[in-house]
Write a structure and sequence with these properties.
Largest sheet: 10 strands, mixed
Number of strands: 14
Order of helices and strands: HHHHHEEEEHEHEEHEEEHHEHEHHEE
Strand content: 15-25%
Number of helices: 13
Oligomer: single chain
Shape: globular
Radius of gyration: 24 Å
Structural class: alpha/beta
Length: 440
């Protein structure tokens, strides 16, 4: 039965129709009239951006239009999409994600992971904000950086900020996403070492949220290097500090109380006029891993409610955003951009995130029987995305595929990872997969 899938599709198309009825905030020219291009009105362009896969633009047009002989040309589509602001697709992403209310939680908390990932785009040496060249004679490449907030319990992207790679600032992106988030109530933010910052802690705390953020270990020059902590082993210690940018004799005489932040250090809640001091408290939790290595996290969750073993478990759940990036890139198709201009690429980034969330929302309602099976089973997300893409493209004059039955039929075993088994992450730069040479 397709009741839930149909209601979800109706929600998305209704939001697009609302935008189409009053397109002024979403297009570059308020006088733009999409009704003149009957083949590619605003709604069609938006739906195509969301459902596009890895084919060339014209193949995507043919598939979406049922291989009609009167299918619009590639040039017509490019002209129409260029009228739409990237913020329009971002707005739709936020509205659609917010419409999902069947939310799961972790002990009453929303559990958000924040991380970033590089995206390869078409090579353009003139774009100095995104261009990299490792050696003078080596082939260069261009990168954008996607900063994302991901709901771990519901497998949904809830926010994102795209930055040119050379100008990217993950700390600023985290603070911006936290400050503008519409999520209310108890929330835990978890992140890796790149987000170790008093400023990030303060932004999350002032939002009324909690955090579990990994930091550099004891032998580093990170936050821990300035604290009075044991020299090794596991521990769980409360720390109270008063941050300041003043360098008075009082501050110098009591390093156990005051933490001096140099002027160049980013901290949005201190200055040298009115906000001279900022009290902050947190726990430093250090635990051992199965391979005998140590990890250290900083959290403002209470020790009574969240002992060290649970803090470690919460941090380990952060891996969900890493696997989601892989699915977003290689299953949904975020490596296949159909444009060179950054504005159009940002359109596609948010469109792909809508497609990812759409597929996750549907698969979350598919019940898989675990009876008489050797291993527990999960949805084959690659097939699920393909089915959801075709379902989203199905027209009113044709029967839609039985989405939930197809997803339920295509499942994969969850095989246990044996002790000592390790998959090494292979990192190498690759050229962007681009289809713009086919654009008229």
């Amino acid at each position: 039965m397709n009741e839930y899938a149909l209601s979800l599709k109706q929600t998305l198309t209704s939001l697009i129709r609302e935008m189409s009825a009053a397109p002024a905030p979403y297009v570059k020219n308020p006088e733009t009239n999409f009704t003149r291009k009957k083949k590619l009105p605003f709604e069609t362009v938006m739906e195509l951006l969301i459902s596009m896969g890895g084919n060339s633009i014209y193949k995507e047009l043919l598939e979406s239009q049922g291989y009609d002989v009167n299918t619009a040309t590639t040039s017509a589509f490019v002209q129409q999409r260029n009228k739409i602001l990237p913020s329009a697709v971002e707005f739709l992403f936020h509205k659609f994600t917010k419409s999902y209310t069947d939310l799961k939680d972790y002990r009453g908390y929303r559990l958000l992971a924040i991380d970033g990932s590089d995206l390869h785009i078409a090579t353009n040496a003139a774009d100095t904000d995104t261009y990299f060249q490792s050696q003078p004679n080596a082939k260069g490449y261009n990168l954008l950086h996607l900063n994302a907030a991901y709901d771990l319990c519901n497998s949904l992207y809830v926010d994102a900020i795209v930055q040119p790679r050379r100008l990217c600032n993950e700390g600023r992106a985290l603070a911006a996403m936290v400050d503008r988030s519409p999520i209310e109530g108890k929330t835990i933010v978890t992140a890796d070492r790149g987000y170790e910052s008093y400023n990030n802690f303060a932004h999350i705390e002032r939002k009324g949220w909690n955090f579990v953020i990994r930091v550099k270990d004891l032998d580093s020059n990170g936050i821990l290097s300035g604290l009075r902590l044991p020299s090794g082993g596991e521990f769980d210690i409360d720390v109270r500090q008063t941050l300041t940018k003043k360098q008075t004799n009082e501050v110098k005489a009591h390093p156990e109380i005051y933490k001096f932040l140099p002027f160049k250090a980013t901290f949005d809640f201190l200055d040298l006029r009115e906000n001279l001091f900022y009290p902050i408290s947190f726990r430093v939790v250090r635990f051992v891993l199965p391979n005998d290595a140590y990890e250290t996290v900083i959290t403002n969750l209470s020790a009574a409610d969240f002992p060290p073993d649970e803090i470690r478990s919460i941090y380990n759940m952060r891996w969900g955003i890493e696997t989601s990036f892989r699915a977003l890139k290689y299953t949904v198709g975020l490596t296949n951009f159909h444009a060179k201009k950054q504005e159009s690429i940002i359109q596609e980034i948010f469109a792909k995130m809508i497609m990812y969330n759409f597929a996750e929302m549907i698969t979350s309602h598919v019940v898989i029987s675990q009876m008489d099976k050797r291993h527990p089973y999960q949805v084959n997300f690659t097939v699920a995305v393909y089915v959801c893409r075709q379902f989203l493209r199905s027209r009113n004059d044709e029967p839609p595929p039985d989405v939930e039955a197809l997803i339920r039929k295509n499942i994969l075993p969850i095989r246990p990872i044996h002790q000592g088994q390790k998959n090494t992450r292979k990192i190498r730069y690759k050229s962007a997969v681009s289809f713009v040479y086919r654009v008229a």
